[in-house]
Amino acid sequence: MNTLFAQTSFWYDFSGTASLEINYTNNTRPNACKVSSYKMFPEEYTDIIDTLSSGSGKKTYKIPVSGPQSVTLTLQGIEVPILLIPGASLACAVDFSDIKNVKFQTTDSLSLINGYLLKRNFSARLPSKTKVAKHLNRPVT
């Protein structure tokens, strides 16, 4: 059976959305939060700029997503790469006392993929000397 690309699949939804929930703790002062995405078709840029209040809390954002799409969450100087798909609901935990230790709280494959993307993103920012030492289980000199 010959079919054209995506003719019989349902991985796209031109009016689809995804939900991104941020559960945060140990926020000592109000911090800016930015969620950015680009939907290719129909073309749409999304930049949500918000403030996370002091202490602990939860924020939920609806993001237009028509297919597997890259989203960037920017918090206190770090960028967290996120993959979302239409209809997805992804929850991430942010502890401002250890900002680089963002965790995804849902127990599906999307959380596993996003955990991988996050680790890859942060390890790419390490100096090469640190990467080699970490790989060889040696102290950095």
Structural summary, described in words:
Mean pLDDT is 81; it is low at 1-8 and 126-133. It is built from two helices and eight strands, in the order E-E-E-E-E-E-E-E-H-H. The strands form two sheets. It has a four-stranded mixed sheet. The protein has 141 residues and is an alpha+beta fold. A hairpin with a 2-residue loop joins strand 5 and strand 6 (78-84).
How is this fold's topology laid out?
Elements: E1 17-27, E2 31-39, E3 44-52, E4 55-64, E5 69-75, E6 78-84, E7 89-95, E8 103-104, H1 109-124, H2 128-135
Parallel strand pairs: 1-7
Antiparallel strand pairs: 1-4, 2-3, 2-5, 5-6, 7-8
The total count of helices amounts to 2
Helix content: 10-25%
Largest sheet at a glance?
4 strands, mixed
Low-confidence stretches: 1-8, 126-133
Tell me, briefly, the overall form.
Answer: globular
Rounded to the nearest angstrom, the distance between the terminal CA atoms is: 60 Å
> What is the averaged pLDDT score?
81
